[in-house]
Structures are given as structure tokens and as C-alpha cells.
Amino acid sequence: MRQISLSRSIRRTFSTTLSALALVGASAALTPADAVAAGKLQPDLAVDLMMTDVLNPAEGETFNAQIDVRNYGTGESSPITVTVAVPEGLRTTTPYDFGWTCAVASATSYTCSYPALAAGGRAERLHVPFVVAGAVPGTAVPITTTIAPERREANTGNNTGSVTVAISGTCVIRGTVWHDLDRDGQREEGEPAVAGGPDGVLYVRLGVRQGQATGGGSAVVNPDGTWSITARTELLYQVWMETSNAYSLTASDAGDDATDSDMVTSYQYDPTLLVSGSEFHAVHGGEYVVDAGLVTRS
Predict the structure, then answer these.
(1) Both 178 and 161 in a single domain?
(2) Nearest-5° Cα angle at 112, 106 to 114
(3) pTM of the model
(4) How far apart are CA 26 and CA 196, in angstroms?
(5) Which residue among 37, 84, 131, 138 is the one 20 to 30 A from 276 at the CA level?
(6) What is the pLDDT of residues 188-238, one digit of tens each?
(7) Where a domain ends, among 166, 186, 209?
């Protein structure tokens, strides 16, 4: 009885093992193509990127939102429809035709369409124009794009994208250039101004520190050493100055901010001296003072 029971157990084990090996062999025979075919191919349309071609448009100016749409899914999409919202403070204008077909859907939106995208495909960049109309200077206005997919998608969480655009206002940037006779970095009574001209300050320039920005400016230094620029805002600026090589730069930030020198770097580039201040962010209604103290070059 004991031998018969053991023999039956061996036969059952052997049969089970053969069945398992057969399943393993069948799995190994499947190719990657079989695995993909067995899955459901779905598109995954996404607002891949949103940006504006101007960082700080002002009242009455036209700028463009630039939008990239891509299909990250494993299947082809249906024809694409997107809605681009027009927020308060902006208005619509005549849309472009750069691969997309766009129309003004209402006072608050554009509707744009594009042919179906293959899996992994990217649409032509969508350019949508806006006019600044009543937006408050200094505020950041949001623009939103939403895809309305016609087919079931693998992921709908990326069907919306947004970008904000800063509305430019104005600010005043000014300063005084003086001859720091005692080299202490402080402008004191009796120390003379350095005026504009070949023997003094050749130019004062407001440099924009960002690409795709509108702003900057330049000024002539007055006989009393003062200068002033009214400039656009919502930008990073830096004041640059070129003077006669008869001068060098005095110590920076050496005490009372109302009377010290705000220029922090210098480069003696004969026959002139190049100096610059620290970078600062200019906002609507602001007033920024950037003074420069010069000493006789030794």
C-alpha cells in the first residue's frame, strides 16, 4: 500500500511539472509585438508647453501665446480641438494660420483645431494673439489652454496648460555721479559732480537682463551729475555706465545708502572705465536710485 501511494504521487507531480513547462514555453514564444497588440492602444494628448513671445506687454500692445501639443500615447488621436481662454484685461484679435485653424469663439476664448496626431507625434506650434486691453499694470494675467479629446485617453490630467504674462507699467530709475575726493565711498558736501561728456560720463544705460523682454533705456548725465530714466517694468535691470579713464570706481555700499555708491563692478578698459550696479527687479510705480562714486585714477 505504501509503494502504490508513492507511485501515484510521483505521477501527479510529473504531470503537473509538464503542464508548467508547457506554459513557460508558450510565454517565451510571445514577442514584444504580441504584447503590444494584446494591450489597448490609446492616445494621450498633452499641453506640452506654454509661453509668451513677450515677457511684459503694455496696454494696447499685441503679443502671442505659444502652445505645444503632443500625443504621448500609444495610439493615434482623433482630430484635435483646443480652447484658449482670454482672461479679463486681454482681448482677442485676428488669429493666425500656422498649421492650425483658429477662430474667435467668443469674447473670452479662441477655438483651434488640428489634424489627428500619431502616437508620439507633435503638432505645429500654435500661436494665439492677444491684445492688452485694461489689464492692471504690475499684475500677472493667466492664459489657459484646454484640449477636448474625442477619444478615450490614457491620461486626462495633462489636457490643460497655462502661462502667466506680466503686464508692464512704468518706473523711474535715477542716480547721481560724483567725484569722491576723500575716497571714503560717501558723497559729502563739497565733493563735485561728474558731468556727462568725453572727460566725464560717456553714457548711462539701463540693461535688460532677460530675453524676450521689452525695456531698457539710456540717459545723458546733467552738469550737476544727475540722470534719470523712465522705464517699463516687470523686468530685471542693471545700470551700466562708461566714463573717462581718468577715473576709477570708489568703494561700494560703504554706509548710508542715500549717499553711498551703488556701483559694484568695474573694468578699466582703456580709454574708458566700465562700471555696473547690482541686478534689481523693477515693478510698476517704483523708484530706484543707483548712484556712482568715482575717484581719480592712480
Answers:
(1) no
(2) 165
(3) 0.81
(4) 88
(5) 138
(6) 999 999 999 999 999 999 999 887 889 999 999 999 999 999 999 999 999
(7) 166
Among 131, 166, 201, the domain boundary falls at: 166
Q: What is the amino acid identity at position 79?
A: P
CATH of the domain at 156: 2.60.40.1510
Q: Do both 162 and 174 map to the same domain?
A: no
Is residue 26 assigned to a domain? no
Instruction: Look at residue 11 and tell me if it is in a domain.
Output: no
Cβ–Cβ < 8 Å for 209, 218: no
Domain boundaries, position 139: 45-166
User: Model confidence over 50-67: pLDDT tens digits?
Assistant: 999 999 999 999 999 999
* Residues 241, 248: Cα–Cα separation, whole Å: 12
17-36 pLDDT, tens digit per residue, is: 434 434 334 443 433 333 33
C-alpha cell at 159: 489636457
Residue 251, CA atoms < 13 Å, CB-side half-sphere: 13
d(CA 198, CA 195): 9
- List, in order, residues 6 or more apart from 77 with CB less than 8 Å away: 43, 45, 71, 116, 117, 149, 151
Does any domain span residue 237?
A: yes
290 and 252 in a common domain: yes
| Same domain flag for 150 and 224 | no
| 27 domain residue, yes or no | no
The total number of structural domains that make up the chain? 2
Cell matching residue 56? 511684459
Q: Which grid coordinates belong to 128?
A: 494665439
